[in-house]
Specification:
The chain is mainly beta. It is 13% helix and 50% strand. The protein has three helices and 34 strands. It has a four-stranded mixed sheet, with no helix packed on it. Strands 4-5-6-7 form a four-stranded antiparallel sheet, with no helix packed on it.
Length: 387
């Protein structure tokens, strides 16, 4: 009776958690392609904003902060959030919009007539410059006709674009003014001071880095050196992975996996090849193995985590494990409740990691269909697309 009560308690928890997640998940919207128009759907593919745009490109999808999507409609680019409220109005008529190089939410590079500006709650730098970049004190260096100028954090042009070089002052006297001081050098190398509002914040103290991995590996390798030497006498070839407590041993044109700690074979010596995939799954290092002409995945314990039925397996962009069969690509998902995205696409790559909560990141992939259309696919295997 007690076991039944415990089971029901766990079941009710899962149901309630699922309901809570379902409600929270309403904030996470994915661009959804219907024929040739884009709208937005939830992660299960339920349409929330009906298709209306020629293209929707997600800049940020985040439940804690606001999501942002670049919309292309009738050749004009603007920005919306998950409720379709306009962050950058359509009337601005920008030719393009990009996320800033430092990935700061709500600061965007905007383009018009091959010139660049900055939008931050409003147009703080008009798109009239050749190039620009974010600099210290939340300011922006702009370039025009090879000369530099500067906009401060309030979007005010405090240094006109007439100077060859702009830098912050290092003078103790200047800091006594309790203002941020810029030094601009003109074409005849004369320095000019410009006084700015001061919002300078010292960088947080950074903890020292851990010891190099190479040092740890050397210590571990030394521990297994005697056993490795013994294996080299017994087998034709030994590939060492001492840091992971194993070795790949070769015999009669076949290979197997040997545990250096357990001092025994972790697999039979029956594989055509075993090679390091360079990725971990649930803290276990993964290896690609080949058997009877097909590839699969095995972990450092010798456990098969993906059966050998693929023509190729390799690491793609952003640590994605690409699985390929009959010239179609899919994904083997590590650290996910979902096993694989089946290989049925011309190409597929990781596009964005969406933080759902502190325990889960939902991964969004971009895939090319056989008909040439580019769509988004969730780690749950759902295609955000319909004809």
């Amino acid at each position: 009776m007690k076991k039944h009560i415990q089971y029901l308690t766990v079941l009710m928890f899962l149901i309630n958690y699922s309901a809570i997640y379902s409600q929270k998940n309403e904030k996470i919207l994915i661009p959804f392609l219907v024929k040739d128009k884009w709208g937005l759907s939830d992660t299960l593919g339920n349409i929330k904003i009906k298709e209306f745009a020629e293209k929707i490109t997600p800049f940020f999808i985040n439940e804690e902060s606001k999501s942002r999507y670049k919309v292309t409609e009738n050749g004009i680019n603007y920005l919306i959030d998950e409720s379709n409220s306009k962050i950058i109005p359509k009337k601005n008529g920008y030719d393009d919009i990009e996320v800033n190089s430092k990935q700061i939410v709500d600061i965007y590079y905007v383009y018009k007539n091959n010139k660049i500006g900055v939008f931050h709650n409003k147009e703080v730098v008009p798109p009239i410059y050749d190039r620009l970049y974010l600099t210290s004190n939340e300011s922006i260096i702009v370039y025009k006709n090879y000369k530099r100028g500067l906009y401060n954090s309030e979007g005010k042009l405090i240094i006109p674009p007439y100077y060859n070089f702009i830098q912050t002052s290092t003078s103790d006297e200047d800091f006594k003014e309790k203002k941020y001081v810029w030094i601009a050098t003109d074409s005849i190398n004369i320095e000019h001071k410009f006084y700015d509002i001061s919002i300078y914040k010292k960088e947080k103290f950074e903890t020292p880095p851990p010891p190099p991995l190479a040092e740890i590996i050397n210590i571990t390798e030394h521990k297994y050196t005697p056993k490795i030497n013994d294996l080299k006498k017994e087998y034709e070839k030994v590939d060492e992975f001492s840091y992971y407590g194993l070795a790949i041993v070769h015999k009669d044109n076949k290979v197997g996996m040997y545990g250096l700690e357990s001092k025994q074979l972790l697999t039979k010596i029956e594989y055509d090849e075993i090679s390091d995939l360079g990725i971990n799954n649930k803290n276990k290092k993964l290896f690609v193995f080949k058997k009877q002409g097909y590839y699969g995945i095995i972990n450092q314990d010798g456990k098969i985590v993906l059966e050998s039925k693929y023509n190729n397996i390799f690491e793609g962009y952003w640590g994605t494990i690409i699985i390929e069969r009959e010239n179609r690509k899919g994904v083997f998902l590590t650290d996910s409740i979902y096993p694989v995205i089946e290989p049925k696409y011309k190409n597929i790559e990781k596009f964005y990691e969406i933080p759902v909560n502190k325990y889960w990141i939902f991964v969004l992939y971009k895939a090319e269909l056989l008909n040439g259309k580019s769509i988004f696919v969730g780690e749950n295997g759902i295609e955000y697309y319909s004809e």
